[in-house]
Amino acid sequence: MMTHAIAAWLHYLGMMAMMALLAMEHLLFNEKLDLARSRLLLRIDALYGTLAGIQIGTGIWRMWLEKGSAYYLSNPLFHAKIGLFALVGLLSLYPTLTFLAWRTGLRQQQAPQIAPGKARLVTMIIRLELLGLLLIPLLATLIADGVAR
Q: Which residues pair with 113 in a beta bridge?
C-alpha cells in the first residue's frame, strides 16, 4: 500500500510542478526579454519537458499498481486524458523551439528579438497548455470515480 501512496504522491507532485513551471513561463515571457530572463525561460522549459516525461513514467507506474491496465485502457475518459496530455505536449513544441532558437544569440550575449505576432502566439499557446493541464486532473478524478464505465 505504501508503494501506491508514493506513486500517487509523485504523480500529483509532478502535475503541480508542471503547472507551476508553465505559469512561470507565462509570467516571464514577453516580446522584450533580457539575457537573464531568456536564459531562465530556457531552463524552466527544459525542466517542464523533463517533468512531462516523469509524469508519463509515474502514470504508467500507477496504472499497473492500482486498478490494472485493463481498467484504464477500456475507459474512454482515460483515452481523453492521455490524448489531452499528448495535445499539451504537441502544443509545447512551439514555445520550446522558439526558446531553443535563442541559444546561439544568448551565447553571444544577445537578447532575443521577438516579433509581436510571435510573442502573442507563444503566449496563447502557453495559455492553452495551462488550460489543458488544468483539465487533466478533472478527467483523472472522473476516471477514479468510475464515470464512463
A: 32
pTM, entire model: 0.92
Sorted by where each begins, the domain ranges of the chain are 2-144
Per-residue pLDDT of the chain (149 residues; tens, 9 = 90+): 788 899 889 999 999 999 999 999 999 999 999 999 999 999 999 999 999 999 999 999 988 888 888 888 999 999 999 999 999 999 999 999 999 999 999 999 999 999 999 999 999 999 999 999 999 999 999 998 887 76
Q: Which cell numbers hold the place of 98?
A: 522558439
Within 8 A by CB and 6+ apart from 122, the residues are 29, 94, 95, 98, 114
